[in-house]
Protein: Fumarylacetoacetate hydrolase family protein
Amino acid sequence: MKTTTRSGRMCLALGDKVIDVERASGGRFPADPLAVFERWTEFVEWGRATTDGPAASAGLAGSPSPTPRQVFAIGLNYREHAEEAGLAPPESPATFTKFATSLTGPDTQLALPSAFVDWEAELVVVIGRRAEKVVAEQAWRHVAGLSAGQDFSERVVQSAGPVPQFSLGKSFPGFSPTGPVLVTADEFADPDDLAIECLVNGESVQKARTSSLVFPVAELIALLSSVCPLLPGDLIFTGTPAGVGHARTPRRYLRPGDEVVTRIEGIGQLRQTCVAG
Structure:
């Protein structure tokens, strides 16, 4: 099953057609995506049995979970990315947040606040059932689905101060696009092994498989939920592969006119066009 949003309303993606959930369900489920995530088990049963319905309003797709209460992000979660940063792979997940006001949809203009904005393609997990002190073996039961994301990063702000300011440097408006759809885990042959790629102006700059994550999805959910409950609609940005611009010689950052495409197998792609901020 695949979901998306249009104008902030929860929708089902049925092949080439996108249907409005509230209207298709006769009001059984609300338009508010967060309210649907709160009833995810019931919604999935209905959604899998639904084959048609009223078309969603025209417009660009939005973030599959546009109003999460918590957004977690994981640093250095691919061994090669840790190595290009000159660091050892972490012994526990390097966790920060991306503030929710940075969230946006899959096809957008990215306003560059400076000349030091970098790309980071990421697999994004959307929580569908409250997870608290969950063991890894049961973690996937709490996942609504997977989406694609970008963890755009302003590297000067990120590194300013006596300690790194990861959350600020990664939370400018538009710095957290996700989409184009949320895909339930049963749609994949192996949800832990998906191809991920980032292209800048058609050049492949990042390419990996999510099976290379230092801490895979189930372990992340277990470790995070051991500290705080994960709530329906919450997002986990799982980390980026090697190939970021900041680690290159010479360093490379995004410029107005650049196009960033992020692809994940079985999910689809994001497309951001960079403009002056």
Q: What stands out?
A: The first helix runs from residue 21 to 24. The helical segments are 21-24, 33-37, 40-49, 79-84, 155-159, 166-169, 217-225.
